[in-house]
Design brief:
69% of the residues lie in helices and 0% in strands. By secondary structure, it is an all-alpha fold. The radius of gyration is 19 Å and the shape is globular.
Length: 245
């Protein structure tokens, strides 16, 4: 029968409490109510709906799944992990290089705006609610980065806060998918029941992608979602628009 060493139980409880605190903070940071303006962007989905590319639950799931596996889900995930790992290692130069690279890796002007506007808004909100984190030297390294990317801001802030990379990436991709489903509800190709079903069916895809990205060499970074980029570009001249991308 195993014997507990003095302090083992308390250490386990403290680790569990720390994980719980991290999960609670992620729920706040990646909530639709967190002031980054995520509700303003559809990631090209608005034009995809107008063009008939997304018209029901099945096509919406296929569209989002493609983005998670091959588009911004893959790109943002790798950038988030790189930023998190650099910050966790106190590698300020590596973090700055990741931030600079991220600012150049977007397929259209609107997709770039979507990422950089949210990145700046995220750090501003962190400074308001958690000034001790915003004052950390590692976050100050990227505060004035031109075109700071949203996943870099989230990854770096989470590392400074001591939140492990896996739940951060899982929560980030889940929130990203949730925002696209929310956009689809407002664009009306699906109803609320289909929206909930879509999120449930996307869960395994998100979990598998998290594990793939954690093991992927950073040298393989990139995205291949040409139809999303095309829809984003077409959205720039779309006559009637609800969203900024």
């Amino acid at each position: 029968m195993p014997r507990w060493r003095r302090g083992t139980i308390m250490d386990t409880i403290e680790r569990a409490m720390s994980a719980s605190d991290g999960a609670a903070r992620l729920l706040t940071w990646l909530s639709p109510a967190f002031p980054v303006g995520a509700f303003s962007y559809s990631h090209g989905l608005e034009y995809a709906v107008e063009a008939g590319l997304v018209s029901d639950r099945a096509t919406l799931i296929a569209w989002i799944e493609g983005i998670v596996l091959y588009g911004a889900g893959r790109l943002d995930g790798m950038l988030l992990l790189a930023a998190h790992r650099a910050a966790a290692d106190s590698d300020s130069s590596g973090l700055k290089e990741t931030a600079d690279l991220a600012s150049a890796m977007r397929g259209s002007a609107e997709l770039a705006l979507e990422s950089t506007a949210q990145g700046a808004a995220f750090l501003k909100a962190i400074g308001t609610g958690w000034p001790h984190l915003a004052a950390a030297p590692l976050l100050r390294v990227i505060t004035h980065t031109t075109g700071l990317s949203y996943p870099v801001a989230v990854g770096a802030a989470a590392a400074v806060a001591g939140i492990a990379e896996t739940p951060v990436l899982q929560a980030y991709l889940t929130a990203f998918c949730g925002n696209l489903v929310s956009a689809a509800l407002r664009l009306a190709p699906i109803g609320q029941s289909d929206g909930i079903a879509a999120l449930a069916l996307l869960e395994p895809t998100i979990s598998r992608q998290v594990e793939r990205l954690r093991a992927a060499p950073f040298e393989t970074i990139g995205a291949a979602s040409l139809m999303v980029d095309w829809c984003s570009m077409k959205h720039e001249t779309q006559v009637t628009r609800l969203f900024r991308s």
